[in-house]
Amino acid sequence: MKFNVQERLFLLKVLPVKGTIVTSKIVDNFRSNLSFSEYELTNWEIVTESNGSVTYDIDKAGIVDIDTGDILKEMIIRGLINFSMKVIQNQNLQSKNMNKENI
Question: How many CA atoms lie within 13 A of 29 on its CB side?
Answer without folding.
Answer: 10
